[in-house]
Amino acid sequence: MAFSMHSHSGQFCPGHAQDDLEPIIQTAISRGMISFALTEHMPLESDADQYPDEGSAYQSVSILRPRHEAFIVEAVRMRQKYLSQIQILIGFEGEWIRPSYASLISELAASEHVDYFIGSLHHVHEIPIDYDAAFYSKAKATSGSEEKLYEDYFDSQYEMLKALRPKVVGHFDLIRLLSEQPGRDLREWKGVWQRVVRNLQEIVQQGGLMEINSSALRKGLAEPYPARPVCEEYLKLGGKLTLSDDSHGIAQVATNFGRAVDYLESLGVEELWLLEGKNSGAKALGLRSVSLESVKTSLA
Predict the structure, then answer these.
(1) Does the reported pTM lie above 0.90?
(2) What Gene Ontology terms for biological process does this UniProt record contain (predicted)?
(3) What is the domain range of residue 168?
(4) Count of the separate structural domains present in the chain
């Protein structure tokens, strides 16, 4: 009973991802998934907010809102077409580049067709922190040190959590991807760890889900997002975990799910949580438990 709560396509994220939506969904079905979430990147406010690979494909953010609306139309069509084979959730990945994004995210989330959005951070000081080393270094220089950059990242994440209360929190510790020591135990930095715990407490209090995101493994990290100390603290607080491949095309659907399951087993996790969307027959977004063992079996 594998599933993924986070994905992208080249059809609606050109330059940033590969392949059209339908063959990606067909791939998820062929790999035994019971649920697959379509969560393209949201429209942006400014041309300056685009990643370099997005700018070459988009040219101007003026085309992003119509593209988002076209995505929703196609996602609804896919949800109906494959209703008997897989649950398709419709959402988007939110961006918290600056607080003004709160109103845009809320507006997009209010669509009758949208099940949920992922609360994510890819920027600190409006600078991408996961694109390449040069951008990461610029963000670090703006903060003054790497430790302070981490603090700023988790402070910005806290602002996002308080303002938006996302149902799913994306790649909680993405900040470590391009850091000097991606495997650093964040408990070594008192101020950073205090912020991590505060944010985890907020997610639990809000009843949100935190994703175990396997994309960190294909990007060369030793563990998925979030790292072990973060997961241990979150579980101690009573937090609920979900599962995502954060795929950017067919080749990445369910990539490294076996390693992610091994990681979850090592944490003592026995169940994951899955949102049930508007094709489940319910009038409101639902939540169900999925045993980790059933996910493991489906991957065999």
Answers:
(1) yes
(2) L-histidine biosynthetic process
(3) 2-299
(4) 1
